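Hi F.,

I've been meaning to write this up properly since the lab meeting, where we talked about keeping a consistent format for the predictions we share between groups. The idea is simple: the sequence comes first, exactly as it goes in, then the structure tokens exactly as they come out, then a line or two of notes. No screenshots and no reformatting. I'm using this chain as the first example so we have something concrete to point to.
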Amino acid sequence: MARRDYAFPFRIDPASRQGAVTGYATHVDQMIRQVLLTSPGERIDVPEFGCGLRQLVFAPHSDALDSTVNLVVLQALNRWLAGIIDVRKVDVDTSSATADLGQFLIEIQYILLATNTPGQLQILVG
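Output, unedited:
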């Protein structure tokens, strides 16, 4: 039987009247999104959780910004999801299509350690 975990955001499944569940790979994608889109201080019980990507959206675009975003993403994922994923690559796309809108696209390639399978996730921040 495939591993399943609670869905995020937490909700009640209307059919079973239990906490909704999702496949493990989807659950890990949801955890990555939580880490990257949560600002430090947003969670009262764990104030250092998150990485503050949304604050970087307002910085002027430059190669230094791309490098900073890459570093912030790597550090946050390695800190909060170290035993769950092994991050292989982080790409930051701040092409004119997204930069003009004050956004950037982050693509993360990783290995899901529990199943030793590759995963990939794209997150548009802005």
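Notes:
The domain at 4-125 is CATH 3.10.450.40 (Nuclear Transport Factor 2; Chain: A,).
The chain has four helices and five strands.

If this format works for you, I'll send the rest the same way.

G.
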